[in-house]
């Protein structure tokens, strides 16, 4: 196996997620550096602040089908997703994990 193939297998750029009760699975994609920087600029600094708008933007930028993200980029789709609490939690966790955004900001800065 080539080095590139090994890296692709070890560090996937998308992950399939099967939200409970949804008729189809969706794909959570790894974000590009410009998208991560843009998200970082709108992320609340205060840990007690409401992160919902930031999470919705994260999902809008990385949830889609196998071809790429964008399925939840419209205001209508974001509003619909916002009331799907179980799926929202599952998708947010997958998006945070694949984009290495889990853990506290302090812990991420140490890495």
Write the layout of secondary structure elements.
Elements: H1 3-10, E1 14-17, E2 26-29, H2 33-42, H3 52-62, E3 63-65, E4 68-69, H4 75-82, H5 85-98, H6 105-110
Helix pairs in contact: 3-5
Please describe what this structure looks like:
The protein has 111 residues and is of the alpha+beta class. It contains 6 helices and 4 strands, in the order αββααββααα. Helix content is 51%, strand content 12%. It has a 4-stranded antiparallel beta sheet with strand order 1-2-3-4. A hairpin with a 2-residue loop joins strand 3 and strand 4. The two termini are 29 Å apart. 17% of the residues are buried.
How would you briefly describe this protein structure?
This protein has helices at 3-10, 33-42, 52-62, 75-82, 85-98, 105-110; strands spanning 14-17, 26-29, 63-65, 68-69.
Q: How widely separated are the two ends?
A: 29 Å
Calculate the mean pLDDT score and round it.
87
Q: How many β-strands, per DSSP?
A: 4
Major sheet: arrangement of strands: 1-2-3-4
What structural category arises from helix and sheet content? alpha+beta
- Uncertain stretches of 5 or more adjacent residues: none
Major β-sheet, in short?
4 strands, antiparallel
Enumerate how many helices there are, as a single number: 6
């Amino acid at each position: 196996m080539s080095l590139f193939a090994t890296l692709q297998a070890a560090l996937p750029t998308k992950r399939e997620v099967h939200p409970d009760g949804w008729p189809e699975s969706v794909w959570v994609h790894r974000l590009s550096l410009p998208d991560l920087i843009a998200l970082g600029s709108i992320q609340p600094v205060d840990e007690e602040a409401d992160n919902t708008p930031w999470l919705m933007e994260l999902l809008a930028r990385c949830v889609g089908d196998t071809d790429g993200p964008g399925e939840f980029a419209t205001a209508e789709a974001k509003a619909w997703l916002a009331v799907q609490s179980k799926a929202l939690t599952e998708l947010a966790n997958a998006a945070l994990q694949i984009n290495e955004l889990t853990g506290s900001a302090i812990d991420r800065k140490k890495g």
